[in-house]
């Protein structure tokens, strides 16, 4: 094999600019024929390009890795995500796939509108350029929301127009250019909430060890204190707050890449209910009007989906365990195990298949009403939006087939010069799905609530819109095995 030449590009800004122009010309020539594919399933075209530039080489050496467009994001944050560095040798046969996998890692930091990768090879020496378009990172969002679990639940309230929250929610992503996040909430109205959180994915050269922490204070004029006929029973007090909760949390993060993360958190909680609510349901906190506890949780997440916002290929896995130790008497300690796995498969052409399985087991001698939640809160069998299903243990299987109706790529907004907001990704999918779930609750009275301890199932058809800043909007029509159907609007990817 010929001796390796000096690096093609050097560290000076002028020569970096010349390298970038060379990459741009090569990349533009390729894209002029193939078109720029969407980030959701980007196809690589580097195999033939490298073969032409460096014929006869079975491996190439990386001489330079360059980044352009990262005006805010620190370069060391980007380098820490890559699985190769200057001086490494890469097999040419798998080079294109290797570069694409690293491009996806950078894109899934969710700091950029798009990430492009180009490579130039000369006599076995490779220079790699990642070009990024940064997002807008500061979001002061006005709060005007419904004080209920979902829109259907809010419509069922007779006092619905007084059950509104307002305030401001401020998020600063990519704080200090290090992929840190600061979140603050000031919420007034029906539910009052004051929160401040900080999250740092990783410190140091390799950015493996991070930190998270925050504080939350919440109080509300109303509280759902019981379940009757699988629906929540609400109690409202105009002159005081029947519920008050506050907690502080801190923890460490171990992070191999953006795809693999483990978090260890310790939190302290203090919760109180009013005497009036206690009389209506003494088991809400197992015979007490207030309680204090410490909870330790360990969660490990492997996210190998092609994109985190609207995945079409790849897999996701998460397992966790939490131990809750009560500092007030009368409440047995609780150990909770949970897991979630999802698989996404390309079926060919515009068709994709997804399946997700998740479950939870909560172990304790006795649990309070407030800790006995299963479906209808964070986890849902679609089509049962109007109900809540209480229980310690549950299992849920969801699957769907997705058809890509169209993908407009990035729609350019004329008249807006800011590149962070003047192009909108737009993709529309048709999705058909089926859910099956089961909640185990041996203590429930079958006359009062009939949905626990029985199979729940539903099927439906939906339209999914994936767009700006990882927003996903879904409109679905669902029918369940109870013979009930309706349209439901959601703002998250369902599986």
From TrEMBL:
Secretion signal, residue range per the UniProt entry: 1-32
Xref: Pfam families: POTRA
Record domain POTRA: where: 60-135
Location of the protein in the cell: Membrane
Database matches in InterPro entries: BamA/TamA_POTRA, POTRA
Swiss-Prot/TrEMBL keywords: Membrane, Signal
Superkingdom of this protein's organism: Bacteria
Cellular component GO terms held in the UniProt record: outer membrane
Protein name: POTRA domain-containing protein
Species per Swiss-Prot/TrEMBL record: Hymenobacter wooponensis
